[in-house]
Amino acid sequence: MHLGELVALAAQRTPDKPAIIFRDQAMTYGQLDQRVNQVANGLLALGVKKGDRVGLYVHNLPLFIEAFYGVQRIGGTVVPMNPLYQPAEIAFILNDAGAKAAVTIGAFYPKLAAAKQEIRSLQHAVAASAPSSNGAMSWEQAFNAAPATPPPPVQVQPDDVAVICYTSGTTGRPKGAMLTHRNFISNCQQMNAASRLGLNGDDVVWLGLPLFHIYAMNVAMNLAVMNNATMVLMERFEPAAAMEMIAKNKVTIVPGAPPMFIAWANLPDTNQYDLSSLRYCGSGAAALPVQVLENFKRKYGVEIAEGYGLTEAAPVVTTNVAGPVNKPGSIGPAIAGVEVRLVDPATGEQVGVGQVGELICRGANVMAGYYHRPDATAEALQDGWLHTGDLATVDEDGYYYIVDRLKDMINVSGYNVYPREVEETLFRHSAVADAAVVQAPDPYQGESVFAFVVLKPGATATEAELIDYCRANLAVFKAPKRIVFRDELPKNNTGKVLRRELRDEAARIVNV
């Protein structure tokens, strides 16, 4: 099985079942299969063939799903891009990937057009709802006029690269993780085997995470299609509208990220939402503060199961639903078919229960490597093990707990401080809505703890008050030396805090 077959197989099983509900309009699996065929045939007519890379610069629209599977159906490779990217970022990624074609929408096309002259390999740009006179071929011209019958069969192998997902580049230029059909299919099968999830054709999956990101792409979209579930697609996340959508469509599965659950936990008048259909809420992409998990459960009566993954693992490595119970603060045990170890970053030796070590993993879901990056590949993949750079502990039941990123650890006078521990403490203060902790240069201690805090609407707190609160609940060297209040924290589309940006800001503040 490969990704190009998923929609066709679903259409054979249940052609009249809703595959996508978008803006209250349903598209059946049979209709989706025909539209995927049109994209595939349209790409073939443009000269796109097996192995060619196709950039996908589209936000959460049915067009993304149609284009994604259309590329897969002819054996091409999808290069998904964040809709917030600017021309220079688009040019870098499509150049690095050697993309032959790019698909977008009219509203985004000006940015792609501005990047086109820098993209040496790009031969075709297709934009939905855009006049052909602006340099792009319209979606209607390229795809809607193409045959809706299956394209000529192509031999796709399990180890062919299906998607090149570019990492967020928090430590430099983004790297393209090469994910194969085997990686994607295996991770879906591994999730299907998770003892307490058991996704099936009766499920309705809310899809509000950005589709260009590996989390929504595989854990939500591919997994839903593989199991003939219905996807309720949300174009842009808005907390109250999302809750209304979940209640109205009797959603059963909600994959989310911490900013979503934070926003939902702070919504007023929550009794108006009937969430009785929900059987699973999962959080990933970033650490979920325990306080938020507890507030959400208290407010809605629904438990959140936290998991852990990364782009390079397609993405799921561990999840609470792989174990018999949810443990707050834990990312759960390893999923079926994935091996996980914790090792000393310096020696590579495995550490024991309760000890901090770097989380490494291996399985059929782990990437083939970084595109055109042999040195980075060799650093990440060692003897078949993916080195994640994340520090964790494991308990006697095999449940893992992320401590922090290895590169985010703060060294205060020789003592290790893990930002997440300080953030969890700040979250317990009644006035704090959001918090992020980074290191700042310090002439005496080497590094000091620096916090950025967002207060709840109407709440008040001073810097001194929050520092004293931390000192009352943490060792003194772990307490922030400085706290800066902000209206919001800089985050990417999946809710991961842009720590490099905050570290730079902290360094500028302490050096003033």
Task: Please name the defining characteristics of this protein.
single chain, 512 residues, alpha/beta, Rossmann fold, GMP Synthetase, Chain A, domain 3, 3 domains, 5-stranded antiparallel β-sheet, globular
How does this model look, in words?
- The chain is built from 15 helices and 26 strands.
- Helix 10 crosses helix 11.
- The longest helix has 17 residues, at 29-45.
- The radius of gyration is 23 Å and the shape is globular.
- The chain has three domains: 3-156, Rossmann fold, CATH 3.40.50.980; 183-405, ANL, N-terminal domain (Rossmann fold), CATH 3.40.50.12780; 409-510, GMP Synthetase, Chain A, domain 3, CATH 3.30.300.30.
- It is α/β, with parallel strands linked by helices.
- A five-stranded parallel sheet has the order 4-3-5-6-7, sandwiched between helices.
- Helix content is 30%, strand content 26%.
- The model has no long low-confidence stretch (mean pLDDT 92).
List the helices and strands and how they pair.
Elements: H1 6-13, E1 18-22, E2 25-28, H2 29-45, E3 53-57, H3 62-73, E4 77-80, H4 87-97, E5 101-105, H5 109-116, E6 124-128, E7 137-138, H6 139-144, E8 161-166, E9 176-180, H7 181-192, E10 204-207, H8 214-226, E11 230-233, H9 239-248, E12 253-256, H10 258-265, E13 280-283, H11 290-300, E14 304-309, E15 316-319, E16 338-343, E17 357-363, E18 369-370, H12 374-380, E19 381-382, E20 385-394, E21 400-405, E22 410-412, E23 415-417, H13 419-427, E24 432-442, E25 446-455, H14 463-473, E26 482-485, H15 499-510
Parallel strand pairs: 1-11, 3-4, 3-5, 5-6, 6-7, 10-11, 12-13, 13-14, 25-26
Antiparallel strand pairs: 1-2, 8-9, 9-18, 14-15, 16-17, 17-20, 19-20, 20-21, 22-23, 24-25
Helix pairs in contact: 1-2, 2-3, 4-5, 7-8, 10-11
